[in-house]
Design a protein that fits this description.
With 253 residues, this protein is an alpha+beta fold. Helix 3 runs antiparallel to helix 4 and helix 4 packs antiparallel against helix 7.
Length: 253
């Protein structure tokens, strides 16, 4: 068995004295593991870093075997991303999310979005907006997608400001106001075609929204804890945004 594909590295772990087991998200073969012989060598270590995009050749005698990878660098993103605490935690959050998917199950749309997220993970504003959209897409791929296109109660497509915690559907201001205390906020920047950027309050609302449905539909039923990396990412993001938004000459801390 043999195939060639491109992938983004999610993690590595030591194997024996000189080798490494590589975990990647690939374009056509989903999340996939394989052994890299000599993967701990000085030549291979800079290539096999989380966040790098690589060209892969996978070989195995049978399809169900672990198999071996040959990996060559296409984009060395790790050095840039490792300078940002938010980017490091963002990478770990993404990897934890992707491990919710069955191994070797292809998700081309997620892969392409992952590449876009990685391009901007070291930008505090862009990182948050893109990662929360990645979470919405992952919920959809897991079968728990939210419907933010129209009001669940009236069918209206304007002034959508809530999400029903029961149905995961958008609700307009008029229909939702009587139950506002029980509703989840729907940040306007998440609406398709809005063209809006997220302020700090909207970012908090967005991650609260996706976090609620991840816990209800994924973590709790599987007996899983919320990834520590996600909490660390949000904390790092808050610190980064505070520094960016602080007036010149003031202490952002």
């Amino acid at each position: 068995m043999e195939w060639r594909d491109e992938g983004i590295i999610l993690g590595t772990r030591k194997h024996g004295e000189t080798s490494a087991i590589l975990e990647v998200m690939t374009l056509a073969h989903g999340r996939h593991l394989g052994l890299v012989r000599g993967g701990r060598s000085r030549k291979q270590q800079p290539v096999l870093q989380v966040g790098n995009r690589v060209d892969l050749i996978w070989r195995a005698r049978l399809d169900e075997h672990l198999g071996t990878f040959q990996a060559e660098a296409l984009e060395l993103n790790a050095a840039r991303l490792f300078e940002s605490a938010a980017a490091i935690q963002g990478l770990q959050t993404i990897a934890a999310h992707l491990r919710l998917l069955p191994e070797r199950d292809p998700h081309e749309r997620l892969y392409r979005t992952l590449g876009l997220v990685i391009d901007h993970l070291d930008d505090p504003q862009g990182a948050g907006e893109l990662l929360v959209r990645f979470e919405l897409m992952l919920l959809d791929e897991l079968g728990f997608g939210l419907d933010l296109s129209q009001c669940a109660a009236t069918g209206a497509r304007e002034d959508l400001v809530y999400v029903s915690p029961k149905s995961g559907r958008a609700v307009s201001r008029v229909a939702g106001d009587p139950w506002r205390d029980k509703m989840l906020a729907l940040p306007a920047f998440l609406l398709r075609g809005s063209g809006l950027r997220a302020d700090r309050a909207a970012m908090e609302d967005a991650f609260r929204l996706t976090g609620f449905f991840f816990f209800r539909h994924v973590y709790e039923p599987r007996g899983l804890e919320v990834p520590e990396a996600r909490t660390a990412f949000l904390n790092a993001l808050r610190r980064s945004q505070a520094m960016v938004l602080a007036p010149s000459g003031e202490d952002a801390a």
